[in-house]
Every structure is written in structure tokens, then in C-alpha cells.
Amino acid sequence: MKTIKKVVLLLAALFGVLASPAADKKELTTVAYQAAISCENCKAKLEKNIPFEKGVKKLTVDLEKKTVTVTFRRDRNNAEKIKKAIEKLGFAVSSYSTVEEEAV
After folding, report:
1. What does the alpha-carbon distance between residue 89 and residue 26 come to, in Å, rounded to a whole number?
2. How many alpha carbons lie under 13 Å from residue 80 in its C-beta half-sphere?
């Protein structure tokens, strides 16, 4: 009987440890970047390259507002790294802000 209790407690502890990080892995963050984009070629360059950054799930480029909105997994990337990726493509980023947070 004691062995069964130990096994059950061990399994419960193991499940608790494994379950909590899994929930965090699926959390998404959406960040809007103000970038120096001015033409369709700029938009195409961003749409071609940024989706290949780690954790990026969605990308929207708005030429009129000069914004690049990126939704990414928090466990795979962060706002600063994506900003650097945009700048590496040759676009100055003046500011960025978090739009929303959601869990999938």
C-alpha cells in the first residue's frame, strides 16, 4: 500500500512539473513596430524574411501607418530580437509596443 502511494505521489509531482512549462510555451505576444518602410518592395522584403525568425506566427505590414506587427511565441523569441532582425534588413525602427497577449 505504501508503494502505491509513493508511485501515485511521484506521478502527480512529475505531471505537475511537466504541465506548467508546457502552458508557457504556447503564450503569444503581438508587438507593433514603427519602421521606416515606404514602398511595396520594403513590404515584400519584410514579408519574405521576418516569418523565418524563430517563433514568429503572424506578420502584418501596413505601409500607410508604417507599422510592422509581429505575433511570436515568447519562449522562442522576444521583441528586441525581432527589432534587430527588422533593422538588419535595412529598416530603422523608431519605436515598438506590445499590442496584446494571448494564450493558444
Report:
1. 28
2. 0
Sorted by where each begins, the domain ranges of the chain are 26-103
pLDDT in tens, 64-88: 999 999 999 999 999 999 999 999 9
Instruction: Look up the CATH number of domain 26-103.
Output: 3.30.70.100
Q: How far apart are CA 91 and CA 50, in angstroms?
A: 12
Rounded to an integer, what distance in angstroms lies between the CA atom of residue 17 and that of residue 95? 38
pTM of the model: 0.71
DSSP H stretches of helix in the chain: 2-25, 40-49, 79-88
| 98 within 8 A of 50, measured Cβ to Cβ | no
